[in-house]
Write a structure and sequence with these properties.
Naphthalene 1,2-dioxygenase Alpha Subunit, Chain A, domain 1; seven-stranded antiparallel β-sheet; five-stranded antiparallel β-sheet; 19% helix
């Protein structure tokens, strides 16, 4: 396939998504890779294909004493540089290609083998300063183009429909929209309907949300959308991640952070926060996967210039 946005930095995983000595498969721009973390916390990535008989290395296992990955067919071992380990010796030349990784604040970035066009953003470390990492939610492959998925992250009108049952949004205002190159910032004011008992049972965190609240969104095109808001018990930060698996398949996951007013309540809120974020991703996924092929829109809604800004960055890349 033709690479989507070659030279863009892609956030393909968070360290917490890699279980010790367990292979993790990633697809990026039509190429499959395998990631793994050894007992020392070092992270490696190779093309996900054994050079012997093309078995997927992600179906294999990690040899703990050597930190190598073993092929599931014949137990051939390869180190993080793609060299075969055999008879207590490591070969001189790689037999399968390593993927260059950039580890930043436990986030695993890559350019997918392309020459970097823009730097890895520092947005996550900036917006999460002073907050605690809660976990990863909503990890999912979505049947839709990267542009379709990107557009919904910049679409401020879909909350009133797509997430109507979850959040009960009745009014949505955008008093601030700033953009500078590949960075953008939006301030969003949302008014909520009164919560029903079913709303509370489905999402208990909603009890702590005010009737009107302000969300601050910042973007690092093309990979990141961050959403930060305050609620009765503290602050919540969501970092929505996107990267193209294939032409018509897009991967997403959300990093969740929190700054509770009382740290003791964080474990109590963790499950509800992650569950609510997962529901948001499921609802967005349904909206994308059930839509008919895109045509020229015959209707314009308020604040769509924000979405058009992202689409222009995509087409002008």
């Amino acid at each position: 396939m033709t690479a989507i946005l070659p030279g863009a930095p892609w956030l393909i995983a968070h360290r917490s998504m890699l279980r010790i000595n367990k292979p993790y498969k990633v697809a990026l721009n039509g190429q499959d890779y395998v990631l793994w973390q050894n007992q020392q916390g070092e992270i490696f990535a190779l093309d996900n294909v054994c050079p012997h008989m093309q078995a997927p290395l992600s179906d294999g296992w990690i040899c703990q004493e050597r930190g190598t990955i073993a092929c599931p067919f014949h137990a051939l071992e390869f180190d993080g540089q793609g060299r075969m380990y055999q008879s207590d010796k490591v070969g001189n030349q790689p037999l399968t290609n390593p993927l260059e990784l950039i580890i930043k604040d436990d986030c695993i970035w890559t350019y997918g083998g392309y020459v970097p066009k823009i730097p890895v953003p520092n947005l996550i470390s900036k917006v999460s300063e002073g907050m605690s990492f809660v976990g990863v939610a909503g990890e999912k492959s979505i049947g839709g183009t990267f542009l379709d998925n990107l557009s919904i992250n910049y679409d401020y009108n879909h909350q009133s429909g797509t997430h109507r049952d979850l959040f009960g949004i009745k009014a949505n205002r955008i008093p601030v929209f700033e953009q500078d190159g590949y960075w953008a910032k939006v301030v969003q004011e949302l008014d909520r309907e009164d919560s029903t008992w079913n709303d509370i049972l489905r999402n208990p965190v909603i009890l702590t949300a005010p009737k009107t609240y302000t969300g601050i969104l910042e973007y690092a095109f093309p990979a990141l959308t961050t959403f930060r808001t305050s609620f009765l018990l503290g602050e919540i930060l969501q970092v929505h991640v996107l990267y193209p698996e294939t032409e018509n398949q897009t991967k997403t996951f959300v990093l969740v952070y929190s700054k509770p007013k009382h740290p003791v309540i964080l474990p109590l809120l963790r499950r509800s926060m992650l569950s609510a974020v997962t529901t948001v991703v499921e609802q967005d996924t349904r909206a994308i996967e059930t839509s008919y092929p895109r045509q020229r829109a015959k209707i314009r809604l308020p604040n769509e210039e924000i979405m058009f800004h992202a689409q222009k960055l995509y087409h002008d890349w």
